[in-house]
């Protein structure tokens, strides 16, 4: 069940509310968010304490998968986190930015051929980021998943392939098997969806220390 997995909460928006502070808003995809939890935002790499969680102006003891929640965070400015960032529990498989990832991509609607170097925009959860098709590793049979060609030069409409992708800027994605809502994407180009994909593997960038707020340090000692 999604509630038993670690927290993944992609941000839809971040508000600055006078008298309260910074309030990120988004839908809980997996796990549970609770007041007092120390969350990490990826790929922003900011860690802080959740002061309160609310939905429809009601304070919640917990936000569950499917809930659209707002949560107040301490010592984080509205400039530090943004739409497309993902919040997770800092102590339970925290989210991290991906340096690259491999995906099974199906081209559904592209007028030409797609080759290495193609850099369309990916819509994955709430992130909207250009990603480069760095390597076409295998062309595969869509029905069986078996490889029909290694390192194809191009793929076209109707083809499926395993592709290594490199985001143009830090992006938080997950494998489809672990976190389905963060592991599928649409490829947008020419104002339409030209391909869809499922993420098979993620190379998490070693993000380094990042920012840990005083609130997070205090909460961590409790």
UniProtKB/TrEMBL annotation:
It is found in: Cytoplasm. Keywords: Cytoplasm, Elongation factor, GTP-binding, Methylation, Nucleotide-binding, Protein biosynthesis. Pfam families: GTP-eEF1A_C, GTP_EFTU_D2. Belongs to the TRAFAC class translation factor GTPase superfamily. Classic translation factor GTPase family. EF-Tu/EF-1A subfamily. GO terms for molecular function: GTP binding; translation elongation factor activity. Residues 21-86 form the Translation elongation factor EFTu-like domain. Its main location: cytoplasm. This is Elongation factor 1-alpha. One of its GO terms (cellular component) is cytoplasm. Residues 100-200 form the GTP-eEF1A C-terminal domain.
